[in-house]
Amino acid sequence: FIGLATSTKLNSAIICIPIAFVFIYEFIRSCGKKENALPVKTIILQFVAFLVICVPLVFWHTVFAYKKYGQKFGYVWGESGLNPALETGAHSFFQRFILCTDKEQYIGSVWAKPFNFHYNVLNFAIRTALMGEYEYLNFECLAVNAIAFSFLFLILFLVTTIYSAISFGRKDFKEKSQKSRENVADFIFVCILAFSQILAFIYFNIKMPYACTMDFRYIMPLILVFAIGVGKFENRYSASGNKVGKVMSSITFSLAIITLVATSSLYFLFA
Question: Among 41, 232, 252, 255, which residue has the fewest nearby CB atoms (within 10 Å)?
Answer without folding.
Answer: 41
